[in-house]
Specification:
The complex is a heterotrimer of chains A (about 230), B (about 220) and C (about 100). With about 230 residues, chain A is mostly helical. Chain A has one domain. Helices cover about 85% and strands about 0% of the residues of chain A. A two-stranded antiparallel ribbon of chain A has the order 1-2. In chain A, α3 packs antiparallel against α5. With about 220 residues, chain B is mainly alpha-helical. Chain B has one domain. In chain B, α1 packs antiparallel against α7 and α2 crosses α5. About 5% of the residues of chain B have low confidence. With about 100 residues, chain C is mainly alpha-helical. The chains are: A mainly alpha (about 230), B mainly alpha (about 220), C mainly alpha (about 100). Chains A and C meet through α8 of A and α1 of C.
């Protein structure tokens, strides 16, 4: 059991080390996410005031789009010199490799989200910091849910033709519940009369989603990656 | 074996035809619903098509799991078939639903929990078919993984309408029918059985296609060896 | 297939999370807003008020036609693919005989 987490940690550290050499993924994903927010603010903010509920939607769209981008690129790296195959041949439990990659992606997405939240607060004048604890819980559970499914699918599609376009096609329908719950919870937190019970409900649903799909992903990673 | 399944197929086909011819007769005879009137009669085809879709999703999910964890090729063929049927019956539900909705609710679509989740399921299985079509060799296992995730979404669909109550009639409607509206009970059972038989017929036909394709692949492999 | 080492812990974890989620979620459910109370049953009616009849009929008919169309198109699609496959099999059988 301990070995399992050790392997996951090692894989994550490897990804981190590669990333800190160039900062390529963090910078490009951040740039993309902020551009998203800017484009949307151009469309939805008129005279300094945003359309109602726009900020919540844009937050999660930015998370989803930049997450998909990051996922594609994170695994593209593993294609060079057949790195993924080498990883899979290691005498460790394969789902530990999955967990390691997942942790790396979650870390990346969390970094991007911090910046995105700040960007939205400024461009949309949205009271996102009214209930920081609740928002953090929503974002955390939502990110883990999205990344759980995304990491598995991106790994699955590594050797597939048309993988660039297939990843979003596969990923978005399966993660709609995450996005809906995220937006629902965020909307409940903002607005003139915040409904904290509702936000808690959506967070609970996200937690449940995370549990179910993380288990499923850990279980299916090995058979799906085996040729 | 072949002769028996051919006879079974023809038999089921005949049954399906009879049932579908008989359905409108029963439906016309059924009483009207008080709040929705005539348009409610779409329900006799709308609900069974969704039940058929969920059945297809379940079959696809289970056979995908069997294929992933046991490696049985026949399970993969069944999964591919079931996915197509899921998309087909889902499409029926998604088209009859808005036709009912525009009259009953005044809008074509509502982002309520069940409709949203039903649309999601449909998209997942369209994605499944696309993955198998465009993914190239080896995409069967990936599609199986996708189907498992799709099936895992189904509880979220079903719980959502009871937990998060909105405009859509709840799932309690059907069990209450025999008590509250006996005239509606038999038509819906008839239609439900009709769809079930239709499902079986389409499943058999499509499986035969998959079996033939598998035979061609096997011959190709044998020739290369 | 050997049981993964993390499985018991995972099952326990999922169970715990499930319990927590239900407790958290269930508590807030009544507070959640509703658009309209949903229907629990259909109530039958013998007579339909005259104003209601005509506008619904085209929609009803369209719905049934769409279902029939969907089935027919699908059956045709299976038939077409079957023809292609059987043709290919026939070609293979013929080339097998020739060899």
């Amino acid at each position: 059991m301990r070995r399992f987490f050790q392997v996951a940690w090692l894989v994550m550290r490897k990804d981190l080390r590669v990333e800190t050499r160039s900062w390529e993924m963090v910078s490009t994903t951040l740039f993309f996410a902020v551009s998203c927010v800017l484009v949307f603010s151009f469309a939805f903010v008129r005279g300094g005031r945003a359309i109602e509920g726009a900020a919540s939607g844009i937050l999660w769209i930015a998370v989803a789009f930049s997450g998909t981008l990051a996922l594609g690129r994170a695994f593209e790296r593993e294609r060079y010199q057949d790195a993924m195959r080498a990883l899979l041949m290691a005498p460790v439990e394969r789902s530990a490799i999955y967990l390691g990659k997942l942790l790396g992606i979650v870390l990346l997405m969390a970094t991007v989200e911090v910046v995105v939240v700040v960007a939205i607060v400024f461009t949309f004048r949205a009271p996102l910091f009214a209930y920081p604890g609740y928002l953090a819980a929503l974002l955390a559970t939502g990110t883990v849910g999205f990344a759980t499914v995304g990491t598995l699918f991106a790994a699955m599609l590594l050797r597939t033709r048309s993988r660039g376009v297939l990843l979003p096609i596969l990923l978005y329908p399966v993660t709609f519940p995450v996005l809906i719950a995220g937006v629902g919870g965020t909307v409940a937190l903002m607005g003139a009369d915040p409904n904290l019970d509702l936000a808690r409900f959506w967070t609970a649903l996200l937690l449940f989603f995370d549990a179910v799909f993380l288990t499923l992903a850990l279980w299916t990673f090995e058979p799906v990656m085996t040729e | 074996m072949m002769a028996m399944s051919a006879r079974l197929f023809s038999g089921l086909l005949a049954v399906a035809a009879i049932m579908f011819v008989g359905a409108p007769i029963l439906i016309v005879g059924a009483p009207y619903e008080s709040t929705m009137g005539l348009i409610q009669k779409i329900f006799y085809f709308h609900v069974p098509s969704w039940i058929a879709m969920f059945l297809a999703v379940f079959i696809c999910g289970v056979s995908s799991a069997v294929y992933l964890f046991r490696g049985k090729a026949s399970a993969d063929r069944l999964a591919a078939t079931a996915a197509e049927l899921a998309v087909l019956f889902g499409l029926m539900g998604l088209t009859t639903g808005p036709l009912w909705a525009i009259k009953a609710w005044g809008v074509w679509w509502q982002w309520d929990a069940r409709l949203t989740m039903a649309l999601i399921l449909e998209l997942i299985f369209i994605a499944y078919i696309m993955l198998r079509a465009y993914g190239g060799p080896g995409s069967e296992k990936l599609a199986a993984g996708l189907a498992l995730f799709g099936m895992a979404n189904v509880p979220f669909v079903y719980i959502s309408v009871n937990v998060w109550r909105t405009i859509h009639p709840t799932t309690d409607v059907l069990p209450n029918l025999s008590a509250s509206a006996p005239g509606m009970f038999w038509p819906i059972v008839w239609c439900f059985l009709a769809f079930l038989v239709l499902f079986g017929v389409l499943l058999m036909a499509r499986m035969r296609l998959e079996a033939l394709r598998a035979r061609i692949d096997a011959i190709h492999l044998a020739l290369e060896a | 297939m050997t049981r993964p080492s993390w499985l018991p812990t995972m099952i326990a974890g999922v169970g715990l999370i499930l319990v927590v989620s239900i407790m958290m979620g269930g508590a807030s459910l009544d507070a959640s807003s509703q658009i309209q109370p949903a229907q629990d049953e259909f109530i039958p009616l013998e007579q339909v008020p005259p104003g209601d009849q005509l506008p619904a009929a085209p929609l009803l008919v369209a719905a049934y036609i769409l279902i029939w169309l969907a089935v027919l198109v699908y059956v045709w699609s299976i038939w077409r693919r079957m023809m292609t496959v059987e043709r290919e099999l026939a070609i293979m059988a013929k080339s097998g005989e020739d060899q």
